[in-house]
Amino acid sequence: MKSIDSIPVSKMQRASKLVGTGVKIGANYLKYYGEKLIDAERAEEKLNQDNADDIYNTLKSLKGSALKLAQMLSMERNILPKAYVDKFSLAQFSVPPLSGPLVRKTLKKHLGKTPEELFDEFSEEAISAASIGQVHLAVKNNKRYAVKIQYPGVAESIGSDLALVKPIASKMFNIKMNEAEQYFTEVEKKLLEETDYQIELQQSIEMSEACAKVLDIKFPKYYPEWSSKKVLVMDFMKGKPLGAYVQKNKSSQADRNAIGQTLWDFYMFQIHGLRKVQADPHPGNFLINKKAKLVAIDFGCIKKIPENFYGPYFDLSSREVLNDAKLFEQKLEALEILTKSDSKEERKFFTALFHQMLTLFTKPFQSEEFDFGDATFWDEIGDLAQQFTSQSELRKMNNNRGSKHFIYVNRTFFGLYSLLNDLKAKVEVNRFKSLI
Fold first, then answer.
1. Residue segments in the chain with a per-residue pLDDT below the cut of 50
2. Would you kindly state where each structural domain of the chain is located, as residue ranges?
3. What number of CA atoms fall less than 13 Å from residue 54's CA on the CB side?
4. Rounded to two decimals, what is the model's pTM?
């Protein structure tokens, strides 16, 4: 894969890239209108593929929060067309890396030494590259290390990227900008944390130590003496990225169930035992080693879950609450889904909407064992997503609702469910409780 020597950083540079992409998408639609007269289904597939290619090519050149968005969207397989999911999933571990000279310059700037002064061997070619940084292999005293180097200008471009996204999000989701600032502030805060590798270093050490009691999961050791705000050094861990492991499709279902159980226990232990969680569960953040054991290699995005959100959020997975209309509404109020300013029409609409959603999404918590490979469950989710995206009534409502904490906690569960579905794993829902 061809390397790159620079990344657009200024708001003007990044905006011009997006404008150019908009022009390409417009041209794609013009071609589509002509082609659909001949073969409508084929024309739509080609439109989605062309648009996905053009959008992803722009985002991968921008890197940073723009590419992070593609990475997050790749997990939304029940909302986006398959062409977008397939293309955006490349953001998890396979994007154009920085060139060798730029890598050397970055290391020298942030650690004060050249790669040769730090290590006995250093590969200038990245072994993986994602949205915020890329990883290189290094050797010191016959021991191998993974050296994660952040792309230049990533942190500085977050504010300008969000400024470009805000008006688009406002139009797409019918939200009032003056009331939605808390959501954008939450996203900006987490993205900025992810660009500070000193924060990630501390989180990685704390979380790997706290989660050591979870069965069948491995963590690398981290090295503060070789790390900085833009460079993070850890043990090199052997294994296939979870996404590649799933695609290979040669593992036994017993192994997939075991990996899925470990994933489930890992996340449930964090949420219920630590009240904080690795809120970026995508295939590029996990490896599977030769013994079919899970390896967690990224703690850049940690979400703390406050008690006043944790209580009502998980109460909504209880049959007792779901079956008690008054109690259900109380929990929605505590989570800011229902507000005092709601009209009777809005209150009735969103109560029914969230009851339908939660009855479906909390199914895994309603039994002792759950099969995430159950096609019926995912068909129901897909049908529900289609129903919501085509619902004209929803567009008329004020959609500024829900605690800011929903953003990353929901993202965690959507990502976890998707990983377990990839594995077609069957898990014991309450096994994690023995760890707390």
1. 172
2. 306-404
3. 19
4. 0.83
